[in-house]
Structure formats: structure tokens, C-alpha cells
Amino acid sequence: MTLSIRKVAVLGAGTMGHGIAQVCAQAGYEVALRDVAEGALAKGIAAVQKSLDRLVEKGKLDAAERARVLAAITPTTQLADAVRDADVVIEAIPERMEWKLETFREIDASAPPHALLGTNTSSLSVTEIAGAVRDPSRVVGLHFFNPVPVMELVEIVRGIRTSEAALDDARALVTKLGKKPIVVRDFPGFATSRLGVAIGAEAIRMLEQGVASAEDIDTAMKLGYRHPMGPLELTDLVGLDVRLAILEHLHREVGEQFRPPALLRQMVRAGKLGRKSGEGFYVYAKS
User: Fold this and answer.
1) Phi and psi dihedrals of 124, rounded to 5?
2) Model's pTM, two decimal places?
3) What burial class does residue 134 get, using C-beta atoms within 10 Å of its C-beta: 0-12 exposed, 13-18 middle, 19+ buried?
4) For residue range 26-65, what is the model confidence (pLDDT) as tens digits?
5) Backbone angles phi, psi at 146, to 5 degrees
6) Is the pLDDT of residue 1 over 70?
7) Domains present along the chain, CATH in parentheses
């Protein structure tokens, strides 16, 4: 690693952001966790506490380490404060290109010129996002997976102008976080989202056509192909609205094979977004 890392700024305290903040703090980094709303920050910190409590209960973490990790995360609503002395900035806001471009323009105005800049996008163009900063060579995709503390993979996406030094730093960071990096070219859907949504969309079409029940489609993939979760269960976990947005993007950029199923559109319009709404392809108990 050519970059010496002391502090990581994570922008966005939602499901992905607070998970990224947790693994960075567990790896020994000082972390600034930023969100635009105090309520979102409080919810994100509470989720980290709950995750760490589970690790303590399982004997994978002691109470002192839990306290150290929590103390290493500083919540803030001010982007400039979060990134001002950061060595790495990881953006983890919703998948809206206009929001990401605006965020990276703000990052560029306040972050140190040496900082590695990562976007947790699962499908949007890293090259386009990098165009919002003066030095796009230091921008990479850092696509983590949900739940971040558990999932081992991080997909590093190389934009057209991403430098070898930035790639090396990204690989070293991901390895330090205890994750396995893969490097892919900046192409719509990258590797994982493209494959994942293709399977998920076909499972939804099968359900739509009455081929089998949701439970049996998921069981087929879990027992027949050793997937840890079925494609419909996974869609509920990711969020039906998130999957729909990715499919719409890939339909525009890649082709007809990614046209979203009508059933998926109908469910999103009905507010059936998966686990976060309490109902998707399955019904979930209110937490």
C-alpha cells in the first residue's frame, strides 16, 4: 500500500454505509460516518451496536473491543468535516447518479488531494462519477455486499482513468478489512450485479408465469446450486426498489435481456419492497 491510512470517511449511514463504517473501525481505522439527517445517523450507529453485540454474544468479540470499535466511529451531518482529514472516502448513498455526482463535487472541494475516493455503487458508471472530481485517477468503485460485516467479497471497479496506484491502494485496503477483492472493468452492472440481477429477474418471471412457488424457486437454487440464499429471498434482502433501479439501468445500457419483469414493477408500486417494508416475495415480522 502506497497510501498510509489513518482515517476513513463513510458517506451514508444506511444499510451499506454503517456496515462499511463498522468493518473499517474493526480494522483499526478512525471513522467519520456522515449522513444528511441526525435520525439516519442515530439509526446507523444503533445498527452497528446491535451487530457488535451479536459478535460479543457469539464470543467473536470481547466487550473491550466492542467499546473501542464504537468509540472509533464519529457521526456527523457535515460532509466537509467528515472528509477534511480523511485518507480514504467511501461514498455509500442511494443509487442516483445526480446525487453521487453532487456528493463527489463536495468531496473534491474538502478532501485532501492524496485521499483515495471510492464509490459503493453496484451498477452506475465509476468513470462518470469520477468526472466530478479534478483528479479522476484516484476514484475507484468499492462495491461491498450486504451484510457488509459478514460478506467476504468486495468488487473493485476500475474506471477508465483510475490509476494503478489507486487500484493497489484499494486492494490493500480491502485486504486489511478482511475481505477478498476482485477487480473488474467499468461496464454496466460490473460482474456481480449483472449476474445477480439476471438470476433474480428470471426467478421473478418464473413466479409471474406460475412455474413454481417462491419457496420452491428459492429451494431449487439453494439445494440444487448451493446458493446460500434463493434469488427471491435475496431480492427481498437487497430491496425490490433497488433491484428495479439496477435492472432499469442495465436495460438502458446493455439490452433487452434486462427488461424488468412486470411483477417487480407492480410490487414496487404497491410498496412491497422486501424486508425493509415488511413484505416482498415473503412477509416479515415487524421488528
Assistant:
1) -80, 160
2) 0.87
3) exposed
4) 999 999 999 999 999 999 999 999 999 999 999 999 999 9
5) -95, 130
6) no
7) 7-185 (3.40.50.720), 193-269 (1.10.1040.50)
